[in-house]
Amino acid sequence: MAASDIILGIESSCDDTSAAVARGTVLLSNVIANQSVHEAYGGVVPELASRAHQQHIIPVVNRALEAAQVRPHEVSAVAFTRGPGLIGSLLVGVSFAKGLALATGAPMVEVNHLQGHVMAHFIDEPNALTPHPKFPFLCLLVSGGHTQLLLVAKPLAHEIIGQTIDDAAGEAFDKCAKVMELPYPGGPVVDKLAAQGNAQRFSFAKPQMAGLDYSFSGLKTSFLYFLRDQVAQNPAFVAENKADLCASLQRTIIEILLHKLEKAVAQTGVKEVAIAGGVSANAGLRSAVSALGKRHGWSTYLPPLRYTTDNAAMIAVAGYFKYLSGETAGLDVAPLARM
């Protein structure tokens, strides 16, 4: 096993079908097929997602191999997302990985989707110098379904030191956006509108949790009741104040996230700090983390925007480190909705 090992990564945890090829940690290709069908429903429909994965998986893998100029029998290992995610979607990726492994003789490597997001910080690109966090580092993992504070001691050793006890930060963004009747997915729309608004205009609840855990359900309730009361007085309230509402909501979520991150740095003494996950694409969060790190003397790491959403590049690189450690999966491996 060496840096010349070629890993094919497959990601199918939600509604994006993705395949990537990496030589060691150097990315050779990364192909993603999105599903726009869910926009009409205001959220991902699991049955439609799994059907679309079945349509996309073969052409996506073919395109990734062709772009990397790699033939199937040259693949050293097939890395795949085992979970967490939508079980029907995961089944497509896991089943394809098994078929390819049987056909080529390459071993399979299972990857935890969340671990993949963290390891996105170790994706290298040809002819480019990419700064990586030094171990140990703290990682604030923020996505639509998860919010966690992780202490990362080494590539495959991630300790959860704080997490949400109810809703995730990304969920709070999306559900509050839905209340304002913004297009799906709501998080990026809130981020865009927030740049045009006054973040100090409105105040919302900030649930106080012990330790390093988070809670966002109280914020969602506070936001919903505030809008209900305001709309009762002025039916056009949301339309007239959309940018300020988004800016104030975004500021509140970011303050909740960074308060615990700041606390985690103080408790652990670790000043290597990274963010990961879909919500790490949020411009307000990226700016706030950078500013906080500069103020405290942290070394901060923001993933490139192209690796913040679900993608197979992160699965391939995470899979490479697992392959190096000799951790392979058998043909009896099954996907897990929760891990």
Describe the structure.
The protein is an alpha/beta fold and 339 residues long. It has helices at residues 46-68, 87-104, 113-119, 169-179, 186-194, 217-233, 237-268, 283-296, 312-324; strands at 6-11, 17-23, 26-33, 77-83, 108-112, 137-142, 147-154, 157-163, 272-276, 299-301. The strands form two sheets. The chain has a five-stranded mixed sheet, with helices on both faces. The longest helix has 32 residues, at 237-268. The model has no long low-confidence stretch (mean pLDDT 94).
Top keywords for this entry?
alpha/beta, globular, Nucleotidyltransferase, domain 5, five-stranded mixed sheet, 2 domains, 9 helices
The CATH topology annotation of the largest domain reads as Nucleotidyltransferase, domain 5
The domain count comes to 2
Distance between the termini: 28 Å
Annotation field: number of helices: 9
Summarize the structure.
With 339 residues, this protein is an alpha/beta fold. The chain contains nine helices and ten strands.
Topology, element by element:
Elements: E1 6-11, E2 17-23, E3 26-33, H1 46-68, E4 77-83, H2 87-104, E5 108-112, H3 113-119, E6 137-142, E7 147-154, E8 157-163, H4 169-179, H5 186-194, H6 217-233, H7 237-268, E9 272-276, H8 283-296, E10 299-301, H9 312-324
Parallel strand pairs: 1-4, 4-5, 6-9, 9-10
Antiparallel strand pairs: 1-2, 2-3, 6-7, 7-8
